[in-house]
């Protein structure tokens, strides 16, 4: 006979959920304690937000190491990716959406031509490549559908206009 289901089963589930949330808290607590000075809540939140964005980009588009990206692009195209690296855990990674197959290139890859144009716009406004990558993967009101610029790669002029508008905002 099976044990009766009831509050004790829910209690065990609650214990499991509590244990799963206690571990990250303990790890964060130790990490923040290891910093000599004080860490503001804003800084801690900003760091975690960056980690979350990088993980999401990796899950959705894949992240290539510099060696992997150079191998995919070949020696002639590797220089084009240099400004779009995302720093994470001491390494530079390149999101998969930066690359596309070379037309009639028999499997060879290249950095999307749009990225060269975005690089020029970004530099004009003081943005770096990581800023552009994060902007590309964030919902934007610059598009009627409020989707992300990365969802509009088929509309390069619209993406360039959106970046120009976004980067050019002065408060």
UniProtKB/TrEMBL annotation:
UniProt region (Disordered), positions on chain: 1-20
Provide ranges: composition bias, Basic and acidic residues: 8-20
- UniProt-recorded name of the protein: Antitoxin Xre/MbcA/ParS-like toxin-binding domain-containing protein
